[in-house]
Amino acid sequence: MKNCFVAQSGGPTAAINSSLAGVISAVQKTEHFDRIYGLLNGITGLFENRFIDLSEHFATERSLEQLKTTPAMFLGSCRFQLPSVEEDSAVYEKIFAFFKEHDVAAFFYIGGNDSMDTAMKLSAYAKRIGSQVKIIGVPKTIDNDLVHIDHTPGFGSAAKYVAASMLEMAYDTSIYKLNSVTIVEVMGRDAGWLTAATALARTEFSDAPHLIYLPEVPFDTEQFLEDVREKVIQYNNVLVAVSEGIRDAQGNYISATEATVDQFGHSQLSGAGKTLERLVARELGIKVRSVEINILQRCGGHFASRTDLEEAFRLGANAVAYAQEGISGMMSTLTRENGAEGYQVSYGYADLNEIANRVKSVPLSFINEAHNDVTDEAIKYLKPLILGEYETRYQNGLPCYTPIYCSSNISR
Asked: Which of 114, 117, 143, 190 is catalytic?
């Protein structure tokens, strides 16, 4: 019998623990593996020999169900860029020595683009040295920007949250008889999927958001001001959704500074909404405020999409099945089926070499010609992903979640 390890990495979502639950559940139901262990704080837990026995920690279906609906990452996360083997082969030697010491047959890495880069490099090294350890990536990201998958776990729940927030803001801002503009900044550095999802807020009562701006097309401040003028005349109280990564025709982020970057070289963005708030106040003299939803859109476990959580669980479970079949160097994926029975998906896998370090942008067919809204095609794509809810358990009026294991804020 052999063991397997699993880790989580990158930014948290409301669905990533559901994928972890799927991995754990599948391992427990198979005789292929003996134990499943979880690395704490991503791949960095391996270097520090920090891991826990998940077989013992989640011995009941109830414990797995609670984990499934818990936001953030039970095992903790990291933002660590694995160097190339040419840069530092000792890192790889240490990782695979750890795998050998603990009789590891498979390693599952749950994360986004940068995590898939790590999984790809580990798989390539395993092949290089003839290691039999199977490396499988399990997708997640609220940005929905991984390629070779119709949509990523975490996105549907975040989309549900931002759409609901926009709907409630539409109610809030509609009560006063004076002109006002509310600018809502939504996460999305290079891809505007989440900002596009705010369009799902539109109802018979409200057309908000009245304007939507994505990073896939250039942002023109003069045209933006003209758009706002027109919508204020038409609606009085105007709601605008903007991606944090909107940029001008020269590719410069609106208000972002490239002086602050993470270890992957990504600009640390925020402030697009505040910049546009000041612009509207100065140029149009209208009452204006900006709202930055920030991390709320990725941690709203009480408002997760049932579709999202169930697909995340299945993608995690499938990763285990692929490893059992001897598959490695792949990411667990899903594909939308255009059947007569409505929304359906099929599951499979794709080569990590064709996924890592690539970005899936919102297609131009999802963006209107004026570059200030989304099309009906986008709405059709987005709608099924936010459907359904789980019954949340409450205690003392608040949701009951599984404590994050690596957190310094809990006692054991």
From this structure: 143
Q: Which string of DSSP letters, residue by residue, matches 158-188?
A: HHHHHHHHHHHHHHHHTTSSS-EEEEEEE--
220/254 Cα distance (integer angstroms): 10
* pLDDT score at 264: 45
Q: Determine contact, residues 167/199, Cβ cutoff 8 Å.
A: no
Amino acid in position 143: D
Q: Which residues contact 185 (CB under 8 A, 6 or more apart)?
A: 242, 243, 244, 270, 272, 273, 274, 290, 291, 292, 293
User: Distance (Å, rounded) from C-alpha 309 to C-alpha 156?
Assistant: 9
Q: Please tell me the distance from the alpha carbon of residue 7 to that of residue 26, in angstroms, as a whole number.
A: 15
* Residue numbers of the chain with a pLDDT score lower than 70: 1, 256-270, 339-340, 406-412
The CA distance from 405 to 65, in Å, is: 16
Burial of 203 per CB tally in 10 Å (0-12, 13-18, 19+): exposed
CA distance 408 to 290: 33
CA distances from 187 to 192, 221, 398 (A): 8, 20, 26
Contact 350, 333 (CB under 8 A): yes
Please name every residue paired with 104 in a beta bridge, in sequence order, or none if there are none. 3
User: Is position 190 annotated as part of the catalytic site?
Assistant: no
